[in-house]
Design brief:
This protein is α/β, with parallel strands linked by helices. The chain has helices at about 15-20, 20-35, 105-125, 140-150, 165-175, 235-240, 245-250, 255-260, 275-280, 300-315; strands at about 1-5, 10, 45-50, 55-60, 65-75, 85-95, 100-105, 130-135, 155-160, 180-185, 195-200, 215-220, 240-245, 270-275, 290-295. Helix 4 (about 140-150) links the parallel strand 8 (about 130-135) and strand 9 (about 155-160). Helix 2 (about 20-35) packs across helix 10 (about 300-315), helix 3 (about 105-125) packs parallel to helix 4 and helix 3 (about 105-125) packs across helix 10 (about 300-315). The termini are close together.
């Protein structure tokens, strides 16, 4: 962290990620929604093809702040030992549009995405016995989601499923250091899961949705592309579906758009939004008798809400 002559606060990846817990970031998201922020009115994500992948531009404004994230998604980066997602978030004072802070964009994404999932899970998982978790993926989002769930609920077991057995084993070993019985597994393990987290770059379904138990919760965060999905039509057809925004989901969520194109569901299949859950439109534990699916595409208002909370936390630490 350094301050520039112009007074712009610069937070590197460690400070961007380290000033808030996932639960505090989830609180910031809930606070923004309770204050009247309307995700349906959030500006669309812009995408530009780049030689190494995709350049995303995500602006938002709410209350006394505005901001924009410029993110790169480079699928070839992990093979180079580099992060798949790169970028920066510029936080602005709303009334004057004066730049206030520059945050590491990848670290912000790595914090806010699990926070969004954690906020949904506060409402979709009721109290009760420790949960059996199946976690797809072994990258930063998988680690972040594991730790986010542990801030929320006790786990009876964590089963890690990933394309790379070595990385799956590393994540399972990490879970064991956190006190969670953990092992690697296969997609069929979803049959015994209370909670399934999909944190991958997959473009095709990861598991057979018919195996998911009626009371289980599935969270899918890996894709914001209309032709990519982590869950299959069988699950979506059975599930009560929750999203961040109907408009964004029906533009970007292949998990829903592909089943709709197949004629399996209609646009009205969505049961509710994150704002509905926070406002009390759904009792804890979700809709009984079927799986619950929360499909996240990632939205700019979420980056803004978490960035503002980080900025305030930096000020509380004397960094602004």
């Amino acid at each position: 962290m350094t301050g520039t002559p112009a007074g712009l606060l610069q937070l590197d990846a460690a400070r961007t990620a380290g000033l808030l817990t996932t639960a505090q970031a989830a609180d910031a998201l809930a606070g923004a929604l309770r204050a009247g922020l309307d995700p349906e009115a959030c500006p669309r994500r812009s995408s530009v093809s780049a030689p190494g992948g995709e350049l995303l531009l995500m602006p938002a404004a709410s209350g006394g702040y505005a901001g924009v994230k410029i993110a790169g998604v480079a699928p070839g980066n992990p093979a180079r030992g580099l992060p798949r997602i790169t970028g920066s978030f510029l936080l602005l004072d709303g009334p004057t549009l004066r730049p206030l802070a520059l945050l590491d964009g990848a670290a912000l994404t790595a914090l806010r995405t699990p926070a969004v999932s954690a906020l949904a899970l506060r409402y979709l998982t009721g109290p009760g016995r420790p949960l059996r978790l199946v976690l797809f993926g072994a990258g930063p989002q998988a680690y972040g989601h594991l730790e986010a769930v542990l801030e929320l609920r006790e786990l009876a077991e964590a089963v890690v499923v990933a394309r790379d057995p070595g990385r799956a084993g590393e994540l399972a070993a990490h879970a064991r250091t956190l006190g969670v019985p953990a092992r690697t597994g296969t997609p069929e393990d979803v049959a015994g899961a209370d909670l399934v987290l999909c944190c991958t770059s997959a473009r095709e379904p990861l598991f057979d949705g018919r195996l998911v138990a009626p009371g289980a919760v599935v969270v899918a965060v890996g894709s914001h592309e209309p032709d990519a999905r982590e869950t299959d039509t069988a699950l979506v057809r059975r599930a009560a579906v929750y999203v961040e925004s109907r408009a964004a989901a029906l533009r970007e969520a292949g998990d829903l758009l592909i089943p709709e194109a197949e004629g399996a569901i209609g646009p009205g299949h969505i049961s509710g939004t994150l704002a509905d859950l926070v406002a009390g439109g759904n009792s804890p534990g979700g809709r009984p008798g079927c799986p619950q699916l929360f499909k996240s595409v990632g939205m700019a208002w979420e980056d803004l809400a978490v960035a503002v909370a980080i900025y305030h936390a930096a000020g509380a630490n004397g960094e602004t």
